[in-house]
Structure prediction request, 417 residues.
Amino acid sequence: MKQMIINGNHELTGNILIGGAKNSAVALIPASILANGKSIIKQVPNISDRDALIDILNILNCEVKLNADELEIDTVNLKNTLIDEAHSKKLRASYYFMGALLGKEKYVEIFIPGGCNIGARPIDIHIDGFKALGAEVKIEGNKYILKADKLIGTDIYLRFQSVGATINLMFASVLAEGKTVIHNAAKEAEIENIADYLISMGANIEGAGTDEITIYGVNKLEGGKITVLPDRIEAGTYIILGALVGKNMCIKNIIPKHIEALTNKLKDMGSNIKIAKDYVMISKVDNLKPTNIKTLVYPGFPTDIGQPMSVLLTQANGTSLFEETIWENRMGHVPSLNKMGANIKVKGMTSMTIGPSKLHGEEVVATDLRGGAALVLAGLTAEGTTIINDVEHILRGYENIDEKLRNVGAKIEIKEI
Ligand code: EPZ
Prediction:
């Protein structure tokens, strides 16, 4: 088990370089098996979810070479179509092998995926889409068996703009016969990045990044090439840190448009923020104004930045209201923040924060990835020492977090206990 120890309340200054987006990389890696041959993915973040997906590629008999942040995946010897329960359960994104293996091999056996405990996380929209394409789906206990003689393009209407289902259905339809249209598709920036990868393999996809994606099936895909887009959630997390304790903190390698919902909120709150072409410079101000936030699908305020943002609300002068609309259980970090001195009241998926509160160091537990990141921000803001247990949750999605933070002056270390 890993523990993070933070000595907080120090001004942070300097540069933080953002890596490739976790939520794109975890789909791009499984997408590689749709190709016949060698694919290259650049700017792959150094996170434990990456390693869990590489393990699955090895189980499927793919050859994988990792060289710094570049991944080379050769699928010519792909032969297995069963992913055991231990590997399926390691992360949420294992379910992208459903669409990818179904698309390529017309057969997959896989178990219920794992991931953060932030809600029930059903996969009915994915399954309904696979069935619409002609797949037969059997569920035996925790195992899903998906098979098809052939997949045939069709119109698929998603009842919710699910990121995962949109991606999985692109995977299942790129090699299907004929035309598939995904209606009410998710529009998250990652989806365009993933479509670009498939297009580099020879897929025929139009409209990714809008709510209607059209896929014309092709017979075969060749090896592809892509650079993972910068992680807008990692960027958002460090930008919020800059607003908490930064002095000219510069967050580099970002696409400002992808984080506009956050930067607009920060401007409304009176932050000292400068947005340039590919970086944001931010410093702490006194007298931050309170605000109200409601998470929404892209381009709304991202649910994944809600927990880090909850720390900033504790420092605003007055009452802020927060409403989560995507996940039922995204307040798991609040008891820890309150233990550290925050004044946050939770009711279902909403919370009310009265600030400003002086935070102090405590021993706390990361309950999930973004909730864990929120505790890191709180620890860096708090007076004294904060100990965060179960740091593995954080390392699933933030690459070299301790090193990146030490580079801007944070007193932070991770140790094995
Ligand atoms: C992706 O999850 C991200 N994960 C999540 O990030 C992110 O919070 C979420 O998109 C929304 O932006 C990955 O990319 C690996 P959804 P995903 O399908 O695809 C319901 C993080 O912290 N739903 O868009 O699983 C679901 O319960 C993680 O990095 C169904 O009901 O999200 C939820 O309420 C956490 N049935 C809503 O839709 C389904 O079949 C959105 O889910 C699928 C989803």
